[in-house]
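Lab notebook: predicted structure, single chain.

Context: the supervisor wants predicted structures on file for every construct in the current expression panel, including those that have not yet been purified. This is the next one on the list. No modifications to the sequence; it matches the entry in the shared construct table.
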Amino acid sequence: MVEPKPENAGDPQLEEDERVRQARTIHIDRAEVIARWRRYARSEECHARLMREAREQPFDQLRDTRAQVRRAAAELLAERQDIAEAARAMMARVQQLYILEPPLLGFDEAMIAYTQARTWQACALELAPDLKPIQPCWN
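Prediction complete. Output recorded below exactly as produced.
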């Protein structure tokens, strides 16, 4: 007896959709990502030190900020068992730091918060690209 085929079996569109879905599934090497973020943090700290020596403020503060966030993101990823949970925790921090437009007063503090938010967001989106960005780029 011949078994009936499912109605959509062999449908090229469904096969293509499945290939796209599988391509979007990203394998993340947790140890490699943690090591890379720590390297980024060290690099940012070195550049910040050079900028302080050259008296280039506030750029040294922004580099220090990115270094602190990258280091914290690496630690958060190391602590969490679930990568998606770590990405959601990072996006929660973005939500707390969110600033829609740069203010006229307190711009330096806002720029630091914006840099923190964008760095947390970059880390989260690297882990889970399907998350919706929260902090837009300032024009």
